[in-house]
Amino acid sequence: MSYASQLVMTLPEVVLSIGALVLMMVAAWGGQRSSRGVSWAAVAVLVGAGISLIGPASSGGEAFYGLYRADAFAAFAKLLIYIAAGVSIIIAPRFFGATSGDDLKPEYPVLILLSAVGMGIMVSAADLLTLYVGLELQSLAAYVLASFMRRDTRSAEAGLKYFVLGALASGILLYGISLVYGFSGTTLFDDIAARYAAGTSTGLLFGLVFVFAGLAFKISAVPFHMWTPDVYEGAPTPVTAFFASAPKVAAIGLALRVAVEAMGPAAAEWRQIVIFAALASIVLGAVAAIGQSNIKRLLAYSSINNIGFALIGLAAGTQAGVSSVLIYMTIYIAMTLGSFLIVLQMRDEAGRPVEDIAALSGMSQTRPALAAALAMFMFSLAGIPPLFGFYAKFVVFSAAVQAGLFPLAVIGIAASVIGAYYYLRIVKTMYFDEAAPAFPKTGSVVEGGLIALSAAFISPLGYLLIPALGAWAATAARALF
After folding, report:
1. Helix or strand holding residue 62 (H, E)
2. Nearest to 341 by CA among 476, 183, 451
């Protein structure tokens, strides 16, 4: 295969890389006044990267001697990543303009693009070294984004915590990679799978444990979740929306590829780790959220809770299980971005962000449309029918039952009832408590349109997409087997 053909297979990353470098130069020469132009240009670059998925980038197979894989699975995950990244860029200018006293800095969309390059490499990795390079590129951009508001103490603290704990997780992952390489003699996923199929030695088993521990940090699964509430609360809200969506898809996609392609023959060993992480994440995410008074911290625990449900699909280890995880993450992206879009509307008369859940009191009277949208997102996150979030949980539980993990599905369903409590508490606050001061209307047509689009997607109208979404997810899952 020619070098040009291999570059065509990596076209989405090429487009994003060139776009990020060009926009970085524009930002350097244009300064602060170029911020909005760079932001919209970055969205255009993401659209171009999405279009470039058509063709060899989604069906080309292996490139660069097996280091990179362009298949339907990677294309599915990348499209979700680009959508979440684009929304995170679009919602940023108004937030930073009102919060930090000046317009958005042009470095923000460039960092998002560079992070998207890393995430694309993560979901296309077919080698442990490619995996690590992609993961670190995504992480380095994320550390800067978390502390983007340098004058804000909480943002600086969030960036520092994320960096320190992220470095620890990277060390754990790298140690696991070194063990797997040391006992298998290769870093290619296919060759590692052959070595696991030949027999799991103690060294390979320890390598598996450390690799999954490192990946658990990236998806903020228990017991490696400790950074999530503090970082989500301290980071600027558009950055938090980004962290809760795109990197989650990339990390879950990477975990799926590693579990199925590299360590598929050792499914009995890693399934125990995944089941523990799934149940612990569901229970802790539900229980810890009950006492939260900050809406961003509550959504952080909601994120941990939802990752637990996604891991149930991974625990199945089947094609149906992988397909169910992809469907779950698609619906999860819409619910999460919609929730954070409403958090962006929470401001006092002076334009300062308000994050107390108590400020939502009586919002059904002061901002009825906004309250209705948030109620829909909360009910959907809780998995209450007929909203689309119910179908997301249904498919992962169904995959677990088909794989013979009936007790896991039963425990997961029972634990989901606990999580419903704090979602319903939000709805109760909006509809039954005495009205608090109304949030002033922002007048942002773009944000209002995105909220309406997200609400429509997770409404019963979303069930009309099941045939297309199910077929696409099944095709993507088939690429791993």
Report:
1. strand 61-63
2. 451
